[in-house]
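Consider this today:
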Amino acid sequence: MRAKRVAAVGFAGLAVFAIAGCGSGKTGGGGGEAGILVGTTDKVTSLDPAKAYDNGSLLAETQVYQFLLNFPAGDATPKPDAAEKCAFTSPTVYSCTMKAGLKFVNGDPLTAQSVKFSFDRMVKIDDPQGPKALLDNLDHTDAPDDKTVNFTLKKANDQTFPAILPTQAAAIVDEKVFPADKVLADEDIVKAKPFSGPYTISSYDKNKLVEYKANPDYNGLFGKPKTDTVTVKYYAEASNLKLDVQQGNIDVAWHTLSPTDLDSLKTSDKVTVHQAPGGDTRYIVFNLNTQPGGNPAQKLAIRKAVATAVDRDALANDVFKGTWSPLYSPVPKGVPGATEALKDIYGAKPNKDAAAKFLADAGVATPVELSLQYTTEHYGAASSEEYAAIKNQLEATGLFKVNLQSTEWVAYQKARSSDGYPAFQFGWFPDYPDADDYLRPFFTEDNFLRNHFGDPKITAELNAELTEGDPAKRAAVLATLQHDLMADFLPIVPLLTGNQIAVAGKNVQGVDSTLDPSSKFRFGVLSK
C-alpha cells in the first residue's frame, strides 16, 4: 500500500513540497498554447513505473500509460482498459484477454507479451522507491499468445487482485524501449514515446512545465479526450498556486492547497472549489500494551469513551474548513463495502454521558491520564490545531487529562513502532479503493501499526472477505467485520476522511467526474 510502503501518508496531507528547480532538463519543445492549464505542487519522481510510487508520478502515469483494468471516472470498480475482459479461470489464475490492434504512440505493438514484460520487469527491478510490493501475491505471469495474459497467484481467490491492476504497479510499458533490469531515465522515455494512454507527452521540463497531447490511437476505457492539449505547471509554493488559479492564470489547481486557502477560494466569483469523497483517512491508534487501563476491559472502555467523546464534525469544519469529513469506520465512504459502523454503534454526535458510562461500568477512575502523540512534520501544520481541538474536546468532558506531545517524523515513526506511544496520530492513503486495503494492514496479528492487536475472529473474517467472489456476500462480510471491530475491539478510533479537491475556473467542465477514491485525476474529461 502506498502509505505503508513509503512510510508516508503525507502525499494527501497538507504539507507543501518544494519542487521548482529540481527538473532534469527539457526534452522537446516549449510548453505551447495549452487548451487546459493545470497547476500542482506534487512533483514527479519518475516516468518509469518501476520507480514511481507517489501522487505526482501517478498524475503523469494516469495520462500516458494504459492498464489492463482501470477505474472509470467516479467509479471504484475496475473495468477493462487494454483488456477486453478479465476473470478468474481457476482459484489461483486470473486471466485477461487483450483488445486487438493496440499500439504505443511510437508504433510498437502492445500485446500480451508487453504485459508479461511489464510485470516481470516490475518484480525483477524491485526498486526501493517503486510499487513492486503491491504484487506480493503474484507468483508469475504468462502470455501463451498475443491476446492472453495469465497471472498465477500465491493465494487463491484474491478478490483484491483486480483492484491492483489499475495501480502504479501495473502500468503497461513497451518491451522494445524499457530495459528489463533497470530504470529508464525520463528524458529517454519522452523521446521514445512508449505511451498508449489517452495522452502522449509532447514537451517535458521536469517538475516545471509538461505538455500533453491527445493520443489519436488510444483504444481504452476513457475514450477520446475532450481537450487536445493539457499543460501542467509545477509550483514550489501553494500560495502561488492559489494566486494563479484565483487570477485565472491557470485553469485548474490540483494538489495541494491549505484549508485556509480553499476556504478563501470558496468565496471567489472566478473559481469553483470542487470536492468529493476521497480515500485518505486519519485515526487515533491505541497501543494495547501501553495505553491506560488496568485490564483489557478497562482499556476497551477507555477507547470507547474516546470514540464517543470526540467531535468529528467540529474537527472537519472548524479545523479543516470542510476539506475533510467525519469518518465512522476504518473504511471511508465511497469505497465498496464501506459502512458507518461507529455511528451505528455509538451515535453520530459526541456523547459525554455515554462515554462516562463506558468508564464507570468498567471501573475506570476519572479523569483518565492519556498521553497522545502527533506530528506536524508529516501530516501538515493543521495537525497542531487538530490535536489541540481533540485535547480540548476530551478534557471538556471531565473524563480525561490529555498529555499532548508533538515529535518530528523520523523519531515519531521509530517510537510509535516500538511501544513508545500509548496513543498516536496515524493517517492512511491507500493504493486502490478496496475495503481490504483499509482493514488487513491494521487488524491482522502482524499488522503494520504494531499496536499489539490481533484476534482469531477478525483474522477469520478478513480471510473470508478476501476470498468471497460474490460481491453482495463480500459486502455483507465486510459489514460484519467493520461492526465487530468497532463494537468489540476498537484498536483504532476513526476520525476523518479527506476529500478529493480541485479548484477550477468557472468555465472548466468535467472536474467533478474525476474526483473519486481512486485518486486518479484524468485530464481527458476536462474541457472548457
In short: Residues 17-236 form a domain with the D-Maltodextrin-Binding Protein; domain 2 fold (CATH 3.40.190.10).
